[in-house]
UniProtKB/TrEMBL annotation:
<dbReference type="InterPro" id="IPR005805">
    <property type="entry name" value="Rieske_Fe-S_prot_C"/>
</dbReference>
<feature type="compositionally biased region" description="Low complexity">
    <location>
        <begin position="35"/>
        <end position="52"/>
    </location>
</feature>
<dbReference type="GO" id="GO:0051537">
    <property type="term" value="F:2 iron, 2 sulfur cluster binding"/>
</dbReference>
<feature type="domain" description="Rieske">
    <location>
        <begin position="51"/>
        <end position="141"/>
    </location>
</feature>
<dbReference type="Pfam" id="PF00355">
    <property type="entry name" value="Rieske"/>
</dbReference>
<dbReference type="InterPro" id="IPR017941">
    <property type="entry name" value="Rieske_2Fe-2S"/>
</dbReference>
<feature type="region of interest" description="Disordered">
    <location>
        <begin position="35"/>
        <end position="56"/>
    </location>
</feature>
<dbReference type="GO" id="GO:0046872">
    <property type="term" value="F:metal ion binding"/>
</dbReference>
<dbReference type="InterPro" id="IPR036922">
    <property type="entry name" value="Rieske_2Fe-2S_sf"/>
</dbReference>
<keyword id="KW-1015">Disulfide bond</keyword>
<dbReference type="InterPro" id="IPR014349">
    <property type="entry name" value="Rieske_Fe-S_prot"/>
</dbReference>
<dbReference type="GO" id="GO:0016020">
    <property type="term" value="C:membrane"/>
</dbReference>
<keyword id="KW-0408">Iron</keyword>
<keyword id="KW-0001">2Fe-2S</keyword>
<comment type="function">
    <text>Iron-sulfur subunit of the cytochrome bc1 complex, an essential component of the respiratory electron transport chain required for ATP synthesis. The bc1 complex catalyzes the oxidation of menaquinol and the reduction of cytochrome c in the respiratory chain. The bc1 complex operates through a Q-cycle mechanism that couples electron transfer to generation of the proton gradient that drives ATP synthesis.</text>
</comment>
<keyword id="KW-0411">Iron-sulfur</keyword>
<dbReference type="GO" id="GO:0004497">
    <property type="term" value="F:monooxygenase activity"/>
</dbReference>
């Protein structure tokens, strides 16, 4: 037996890190392939969110609107309700108020009509639509 045969080579750093990477990848794959049925939970959560009232019809003035979470709800004419994203299409800031028939963004002065179209730039694209509907006296996501 030679002198080298009796010495066990210590685990070097590169080998240890490679082994840890393989173990982490295996755990990630196992978690991704598990039979957790969260899809039914997420679809039922989405359904509940669609039925949850955003606001009351009485809270949205004719010729105006309100901001509720990530949605601007407007009523351009009596009984006609629309929903839009609060994210300004210019630089991604959040619009923060509806005044004098315009949806206003505080960052760079863009304004939008109650139908989501641009009234005054620098934004050049309309606000993204959020489908809403009237359910009783409430406005909910459609």
């Amino acid at each position: 037996m030679s002198q080298n045969d009796s010495v066990v080579n210590p685990l070097d750093r590169r080998t240890a890190l490679a082994g840890a990477g393989v173990a982490a990848a295996a755990l990630t794959l196992a978690a991704a392939c598990s039979s957790d049925d969260s899809s039914s939970t997420s679809s039922s959560t989405t359904a509940k969110q669609a039925d949850a009232p955003l606001t009351s019809t009485s809270d949205v003035p004719v010729g105006g609107g309100v901001i509720v979470g990530d949605t601007v709800v407007t009523q351009p004419t009596a009984g006609t309700y629309s929903g839009f994203s609060t994210t300004c299409t210019h630089a991604g800031c959040k619009v923060n108020k509806v005044v004098n028939g315009l949806i206003e963004c505080p960052c760079h002065g863009s304004t939008f009509h109650l139908d989501g179209t641009v009234a005054h730039g620098p934004a050049t694209r309309p606000l993204a639509s959020h489908a809403v509907k009237v359910q009783g006296s409430n406005i909910v996501r459609a």
